[in-house]
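Incident review: delayed structure delivery

Summary: a single-chain prediction request sat in the queue longer than the usual turnaround. Root cause was a stuck worker, restarted by the on-call engineer. No data loss occurred. The affected request and its eventual output are reproduced below so the record is complete for anyone auditing the incident later.

Affected input:
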Amino acid sequence: MSTSSLRVASYLRGLLAPNPGPMTLEGTNTWIVGDPAGPVLVVDPGPLIEEHLRSVLAASPAGLSAVVLTHGHADHAESGLELARQAGCGIRAADPGLCLGGQGLGGGDILAVAGATVTVYVTPGHTADSCSLLVRGDDGEARLVTGDTVLGRGTTVIAAPDGDLGAYLGSLALLGRLVGEEAVTELLPGHGPRVRDPAGWLAFYRRHREERLDQVRSALAAGDRRVDEVVARVYAGVDPSVRSAAEQSVRAQLAYLQHLEGDT
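Output delivered after worker restart:
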């Protein structure tokens, strides 16, 4: 398998890592931000696959300003240290344990490269360290790199215990506001295709979460209590290859509902 590339704008390109699977869809999207005539930001370099690393370096002929991680899952972050070593740059992430070079990643941080600026937004929920990046080009276009907070196809897992549904719903609301306030034209997800209707897709994500919560409430009303019981009822047709993801999401949903009941 080989890395495939996508040109979004003169300052924004995508490379698809050759790691397709039930959880990664077609593979991990690595986003390269900045005019290649200057140092670039490489967002989510992906799994440690030598062929993909070579493609990332070849697409960054003037070097890297930094490696940026939307979160620490291996399919996004595993190659970060090796890429940073070969490129002689740092790694910026919300999780201090993933950083290299002394700079983390926090809400409101602004990263500048040739042709674009990147503003960091903290969007926990899928994981505690999840971030999204607002990329605004010198042409005025605004796009959101969403990591696994929003995918280009299907829906994401709330990776309990690190993930949190309440935080995730708040992150979806934040992204929805950004789409309107910043006139975002598309979402660039960690997996799956680009999303050309960001407002509509985020509305679908919110509806999906509300529907799942209603299904979990119905399962509890029917007497289900254990995670496996709820999964069997709510995710009855789920492929066995993603059953563990369903179990994580159910744990997050149950914790969220328990929290709501505790607040009433």
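Verification: The CA atoms of residues 46 and 76 lie 4 Å apart.
Action items: add queue-age alerting; document worker restart procedure.
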